[in-house]
Amino acid sequence: MAISVVMPALEMAQETGKLLAWRKKEGDAVTKGEPLLEIETDKVVLEVEAPADGILAAVTSFEGAEVPVGQTIAWIVAPGEQPPASAPIAAPAARAITEAPRISPKAKRLAKELGVDFTSVRGTGPDGVITGEDVQRAAESAQPESAPALSTIARLMAERTTQSWTTTPHFFLVREINATGLVAARQQHGPGVTYTDLLIALVARGLAKHPKMNASWTGDAIRVNPDVNISIAIAVEDGVVGAVIPNVDASSLSDIAARRRDLTDRARAGRLHPPDITGATFTISNLGMFGIDAFSAIITPPQAAVLAVGRIADRVVPVDGQPGIRPMMTITLSSDHRVVDGAQAAAFLNDLAGALEAPQI
Questions:
Q1: Which residues contact 7 (CB under 8 A, 6 or more apart)?
Q2: Does 24 fall in a domain?
Q3: Per the structure, how many domains does the chain have?
Q4: Which of residues 81 and 142 earns the better pLDDT score?
Q5: What is the pLDDT of residues 62-74, one digit of tens each?
Q6: Active site residues
């Protein structure tokens, strides 16, 4: 039985995905679970796995195509089996619409170096292939004052951030943390565990105790999520991606650290899979490693909150009525007022502060 390969829906309000590359070509044998193609969403480049064993057939979308969510872009068939009759008929038309401009490898490298969007360049080579000279001319004719085009990830991330900021009623709570205990805990667990790992584990415990902070706004009601799935904000080349560690409240610290390392490595290599960015119920954004003291983060709908974490730095603070130096850290909780009120968010932040100052982990 033929199995369709469709453009997956990975995020709320996602309408299309950009097909970056096929890992297999039409006629190749594929195995269920192996990487089949790469797509780009508003946040990240993702690998999509083959949904079944078989032969890749009737490919209708190609590199550079913006494909509507849910549209069939290929079929996987058994040896000797034919795809549905409608697929081969639709393939030539789809190819004509979605096939990316042809460009020589040299010209493609030059376009990247010069910041030229080659999809808008007219090719003068054989059969319309874009050459290095075409790219050079396009770069020279560009207006010096024109801003570089945003990538799909950066553009859509900007749109979603603006939408969240203008439609979600944010409020912010700030807390200073004496990080002496946190520093000791990290030293105790060794170099394989980071402050982010400790934060994930302790936040998960707090969310289990304060389920409203782990809830979601559905548009007209509040949904309390049964699982604690924490998204960690990871800086990538074109922006930030939220990679998700599911069921954190039931995970050991060593497991959290291992999964965080794996997600970070694959996010920066553009090798995340669809489940890696879906299902988050709470986000942690840590900019301490960049020397940032404090900041406020924007909520990712439909989540109810995001925790922004600044660096740990020595400061002069009162100790037993006398000035003393302690490692201090500022955390800022952004909350959706439709889901939680100030007292509920404050109770969560107060418990989290206590856990961070005396981590039992």
A1: 16, 17, 19, 39, 61, 67, 68, 69, 70, 71, 73
A2: yes
A3: 3
A4: 81
A5: 888 888 888 899 9
A6: 337
